[in-house]
Amino acid sequence: MNLPPFVLALGYAGLLPFLIGPGWLTFSPGSAPQWLDMAWMGYVAMIASFMAGTFWGFALPASQGSAGQLGLAISIVLMLMAWLATLLSFGPALALLAMVFLLLLAADFWRERVLDTLGGYFRLRSTLTVGVLIAIAWRFSLSG
Question: Which of 51, 52, 59, 137 has the fewest other C-beta atoms within 10 Å?
Fold first, then answer.
């Protein structure tokens, strides 16, 4: 089964807020509201937690076995890391969230080989993760 076009559209639409924050600060920094970074960082952390939750969902059906239990543990650790990032100052929070997204991608790579797979999901996740990491690096470069 391949992913429905609606799922692909939602995935790419979810990438837009990642790009809006750094884009706004790049192309019209004088008009950016003071709350922009807080809202943007909240979105980044929320999506990192959401993606950890999707990993939980993939692992749950296999939770009777050791691979499924490992998947659940991975999901919990990644969600806690995303939450921890909300407690840090901006630079360290960005670095931790970038690490969470990289670890999520590594976890999905593992999941593709060990747990049930869904056609096209890993390709979508890989593409979106590259976009997320570009947005985080872009925003970090503006912190100077």
Answer: 137
